[in-house]
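Justification of computing resources. Each target in the renewal requires a structure prediction run like the one illustrated here; the chain below, 333 residues long, is used simply to show the kind of job we budget for.
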Amino acid sequence: MSTNTYTPAPDRYSNSVGFQNCGQSGLKLPRISLGLWHNFGDVDDANEALKMIEFAFDHGITHFDLANNYGTPFGSAETNFGNMLKKHFAGYRDEMIISSKAGHIMWDGPYGDGGSRKYMMASLHQSLKRMQLDYVDIFYSHRYDPNTPLEETMGALSDMVKQGKALYVGISKYPEDKAREAYRLLRENGTPCLINQDRYSIFTRDIEKSVLPLAAANGVGTIIFSPLAQGMLSDKYLNGIPENSRAAHSYGFLQKSQLTPEKIAKIRELNTIAQQRGQSLAQMALAWCLRTSAVNSVIIGTSSVQQLQDNIDAVKNLSFTDEELWRIGELGA
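Resulting structure tokens:
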């Protein structure tokens, strides 16, 4: 990894992606956040990872989204990010929003998965140690655990705030009825839910009927992951399935079976709309998610500075005509 001394761009806020309050809180999130699920583990290019973090920060991306099991192997994204913070960003911690999560499998045995107090607390302590931090800004329950009483999971989140190990807490991928209950429990515990993280894209719009209105009614912010539908909403699949793409592999969330000829035809039509707007398909897909104030931020995952720059440029055009929204809605249905 590079050992060059990093000095942030002096215009990083005036030349930024923009900020919006998270729900009804006083915390402002950048419209675009950087996710470290992929490309920041031990198997990845460390120099490129550092360049992406620096480039993001130089453009006002202050929020870095992690989880205990991010990276290959699990935990390596947090360890690598922590090393970058210590070596290159030591004086800028208070200008960053750093989030982590626990809820998916992390280690073997009965205490390495789920939503128990045992697992949640151990996960937070491990994450803080890996990132060499005293606290995280946001800690999430990464998914609802039907085998643990919700009072237990929410109680653990509340205690993290009361112990000063997390400033805010949130939930991710919760069913509507469980999200409603989680909001109530956290509010009664004196640690209201800051944020709900869920999947949303032109091709995945379920949260418009449930997650978004429920969050708004409770003063909770919303942040989006997979705004590019695992890369489908980019120029990667305009001409089929490239050999080294995510969909070409047997593992992962995006499978060949999802990229039917009909779906590829829709992607091409969406690309035409994007070109007419003067945007790449990825830029339009991000702008589409950000068109509503109900979405406070979108999380992007990038593998290069060039891709990061392309995504950042989405904020240059966030407005849509009624006709564009209708055409996009028809193609996304």
